[in-house]
Amino acid sequence: MSSLAQEESRSISENVTWGYRKRFSEGRVLIPYGNFLGYKKGEDGLPKVVPEEAKTIRLIYKLFLDGKTSCGIGKILKELGILSPIGKKDWSDTTIMSILTNEKYKGEAILQKSFVVDYLTKKTKRNEGEVPMYHVKNSHEAIIDPEVFDLVQAEIEKRKKLKGSQSGHGVFSSKIVCGQCGEFYGPRTFHSNSKYRKLKWQCKTGLKKGVKCGAPLIYKESIEKMFTRSFNRLLKNREEIIENSGKFIKEIDDTEFLETEKAGLCGENRLLYNKIQSYVDKNATETLNQHEYKEHYNTLSDEYEELKQKIEKTDTKLKSKRARVRLIENFLNEISARENLIDTFDEKLFTSVVDKIVVKSYTKATLVFKNGQELSLNLEKYK
User: Fold this and answer.
1) Distance between CA 322 and CA 330 in Å, rounded?
2) Domain ranges, residue 119
3) Helix (H, G, I), strand (E, B), or coil: what is residue 48?
4) C-alpha 12: how far from chain center
5) 376 in helix, strand or coil?
6) Closest CA relative to residue 248, chosen from 316, 323, 328, 158
7) Which tens digits make up the pLDDT trace of 315-334?
8) Whole-angstrom distance, CA of residue 279 vs CA of residue 39
9) Pick from 123, 140, 156: which residue ends a domain?
10) How far apart are CA 219 and CA 383, in angstroms?
C-alpha cells in the first residue's frame, strides 16, 4: 500500500509539473495573487493592475531612487498606514527587496525560476540551468517603466559595492562618506535630555569601541547649510551645466558598440546551443564512445556558459549606461524646475540631486551631484 501511495504521488507530481511547464512554454504568467501586491487575476486570466496597490509599488521604487534603504522605506510605509502584501503593519527588508527586484512589475515574467527536486518532500531548488527557464516580454500591463526598473537594479548593484552597512535613518543616511576609511556616517545625539541637545553625524568606524578614525563629526545644521549654498552655486551656472550635461548624456547614450557586441554574442550563443542539441540527438540515435561524448559535451557546455556570462556582462554595461542617463536627466529636470535660489534646506531636493558628500578632513569635503559634478567645500565656513 505504501509503494502504491508513493507511486501515485509521483504520478500526480509529474502530471502537475507537466502542466506547469506547458503553461510556461506557452508564455502564460502565473502569479500568487493572494500575497502579491499590485495585481489581481483578470477576467481573461491575465494579471490586472490594482490602482491603489500600484501607487504603493511606485512609491517604493521612488523612495529607493531617492536614496532610501529597504529598512527606511518600510518605516515610511508603516507611518503612512500602508499594509504589507500579507496584511501586516510592519514591512520586512526581504519584502521590499522582493518588490524592487521582481521583473513582473515592468510587464515581463521569468518563468520557472525554481523547481521541485523531490516529489515526496516537495523540496524546491533555485533553477541554475537544470530545467528550462522562460523569459516572456510584454506578458501583461506594467506598473513600473522598464527604464526605471533597470535604474533600480543598477542602483542595487552600486550599493552592494559600497563599503559598510547602509542605514535608512534620516535624509543623510548612506549619503555621507568618510574620505579616510570609506565608511558611511551615522547619526549621534549629544545632550539628548537637555536644551542643548544636538545631532551630529559621525563616521561609523569612530562609533565602534576600540577603533579610531580621524574623520570629524559634523552638525546636522552644517550639512544643511553645505547643501543649500552648494546648490545655489550650481544654479548660478545652470545654463552651462545643462549644456555640458546634455553633451555628456550623448556620449553615455552612445551604446551602438555594446549593442552590436551583444547581438554578435547572442548569435554565437544560439549557434552553439543548436550544436549541443544536435550532438545530444546524435548520441541518442547513434552508438558513440561515451567517454569521448562526455568530454566533448562538457567542452561545448563550458563554452556555452562562458558565452552566457559574456552576454550578461555586456547587458549589465548597457543597463548601467541607461541608468546613468536616467539619473542625469532626473537631475537636469530638478535644476531646470528651480527658477529662484533656495534659502532653506529641502529634503526632497537633497535626495534627488546629491549622490554623496565625502568628508576628507576637518576642513575639506567634496559634494558630488548625481550628474557627476563635484564641488570642493571648506568645512570651516559651515560651522
Assistant:
1) 12
2) 19-156
3) strand
4) 38
5) strand
6) 328
7) 888 888 888 888 888 888 88
8) 43
9) 156
10) 8
